[in-house]
Specification:
By secondary structure, this protein is of the alpha/beta class. Helices cover about 50% and strands about 10% of the residues. The chain folds into 3 domains: about 5-115, no CATH class; about 170-200, no CATH class; about 210-375, 3-Layer(aba) Sandwich (Rossmann fold).
C-alpha cells in the first residue's frame, strides 16, 4: 500500500485492496459510483458513514456483505499503521512536535483521501478516469502493444460486470422482498435515510448464451479482443457455449475452461484450424443449426454473433440458417465492428440477409461499445 494524493486514487486503491484481499468483484463503474456518492454526501465526516457508503456499493451479495467489515477494518488498520509510521519518523526528527490525539486519526485519514488539499480545492473526482476513458473509446484496430494489457484488464472488468447482470437471480419487483442494497444506493442523496424502498423478486427465466465468434482474416484486428471479452464473460457466467467460425464451425467451449487467457489462446491456436482464413458464414451457421441447435437453442437462449459480415458464401444459405436460429432462440444480437462508424448501414450481403432475423445489430469496435451491451439485457 502506498500513499496516494487524491480521493480518486485512494478509492481505486481501496477497491483494489477489496479485490485482492477479499475477492470482491468491483468494476470501474462501481469505483466511479463510490466517488460520486462521496462527492455529494458528507460521508467523509465520520468513519461509519464512509464505511456505509462503500458497503452499499462494493458489497453485492450476502457473502461480500458478511466479509465487508473484516476487509474494511484490515484496510483501515494498514492505513493507520502507515500514518503512525510517518508520525514516529517526524517525531524522531523533531521531538518537540506534539503527536496528534487519537480522536484525530480518522481526520488524518480523511485528509489523505483528499490528498491533504483544502476543502475548497477538492480534486476533480473524474480525473482518474480520463486515461481509461480514452482507452475504452479507442478502436480495437488502433490499440498498440503498450496498451494491450491495460485494455485486456478493462475488457475483463466490463465482461464480469455484464455477466453478473445476466447471472443475477433477482430482478426489480414492486411486490417482492426488500432489496436492501438497491435501497441504500438509491437513498445516498438522502443521507442514508431510507425514504424510497426497492423490492426484488426471483427471475422466472434465466438466460443462456451462445456466442458465435468470427475468426476470419477480415476480423484479425478485432478477434483477439472479442475472444478476450467472451473468455472473461464465461469465467463468471457459466451458462455460455462458444463456437468459432471461418470456413468451418468449431465448438470451443472446452478451451474456455482454462484459467489463464494466454493458455486458452494457445489451446485455440492448436485446435482452430481456420484462424485468420476465409469466411463462409452461411455454411457455418447451417452447420450450427443442423448439429447443435437442438441441444443449445431454447426459448431462453440469447445468441451473440460476433462478425463483420464479410462472407464468400451464398446469402440464401445464411438467410435460411438465421431464420431457424431466430425461430428457436429468444433473440439474436449481431456484434459488428463496423457498426460503430457514423452513418453505418448493413450493406454487405450477409448483414442484409441476417438483419430481418436479428434483434439488433450493434457496435463492437471498442470497449465502450461492449459495455453498452448491458442496455440490451
Amino acid at each position: 500500500m502506498q500513499r496516494n494524493t487524491t480521493l480518486s486514487a485512494n478509492i481505486v486503491e481501496i477497491a483494489r485492496f477489496f479485490r485482492t484481499e477479499g475477492n470482491f468483484r468491483i468494476a470501474p463503474q462501481e469505483e466511479a459510483d463510490a466517488l460520486n456518492a462521496l462527492a455529494i454526501t458528507h460521508a467523509l465526516e465520520s468513519e461509519s458513514d464512509f464505511k456505509a457508503v462503500l458497503k452499499a456499493i462494493f458489497a453485492k451479495n450476502p457473502m461480500e456483505q458478511s466479509r465487508f467489515e473484516e476487509i474494511f477494518n484490515q484496510y483501515m488498520e494498514n492505513r493507520r499503521a502507515m500514518i503512525d509510521g510517518k508520525e514516529q519518523k517526524v517525531a524522531s526528527e523533531n521531538p518537540k512536535k506534539p503527536k496528534p490525539k487519537p480522536e484525530d486519526k480518522f481526520n488524518q485519514l480523511k485528509d489523505w483521501l483528499f490528498g491533504n488539499q483544502p476543502s475548497d480545492k477538492k480534486p476533480n473526482l473524474q480525473a482518474v478516469y480520463s486515461t481509461q476513458t480514452a482507452l475504452t473509446q479507442k478502436d480495437f484496430a488502433e490499440i498498440t502493444d503498450a496498451e494491450l494489457r491495460d485494455l485486456e484488464e478493462v475488457l475483463r472488468q466490463i465482461a464480469e460486470r455484464l455477466a453478473r447482470r445476466y447471472n443475477r437471480r433477482f430482478l426489480p419487483d414492486k411486490r417482492g422482498a426488500l432489496d436492501l442494497r438497491r435501497s441504500l444506493r438509491r437513498n445516498v442523496l438522502n443521507g442514508g435515510d431510507l425514504l424510497h424502498l426497492c423490492r426484488k423478486g426471483k427471475q422466472k427465466r434465466r438466460s443462456e448464451l451462445v456466442l458465435l465468434c468470427d475468426v476470419s482474416q477480415s476480423m484479425d484486428l478485432y478477434s483477439r479482443f472479442l475472444i478476450q471479452f467472451a473468455y472473461s464473460f464465461r469465467q463468471v457466467f457459466r451458462r455460455v457455449e462458444v463456437f468459432s467460425f471461418g470456413t468451418t464451425l468449431q465448438y470451443i467451449t472446452p478451451q474456455f475452461s482454462a484459467y489463464d487467457f494466454d493458455k486458452m489462446l494457445l489451446k485455440l491456436s492448436e485446435t482452430v484450424t481456420d484462424w485468420s482464413g476465409g469466411t463462409k458464414i452461411g455454411a457455418c451457421l447451417s452447420d450450427f443449426v443442423e448439429n447443435y441447435s437442438e441441444k443449445h437453442l431454447k426459448s431462453q437462449t440469447i445468441v451473440w454473433i460476433m462478425s463483420d459480415g464479410w462472407d464468400t458464401g451464398a446469402p440464401e444459405l445464411l438467410e435460411k440458417a438465421m431464420q431457424k436460429i431466430h425461430q428457436r432462440a429468444d433473440k439474436v444480437i449481431w456484434l459488428c465492428p463496423t457498426a460503430g462508424y457514423d452513418q453505418f448501414t448493413p450493406t454487405v450481403s450477409a448483414l442484409k440477409a441476417a438483419q430481418p432475423y436479428t434483434y439488433r445489430i450493434v457496435s463492437a469496435h471498442n470497449a465502450d461499445s461492449l459495455r453498452k451491451l448491458g442496455n440490451l439485457l
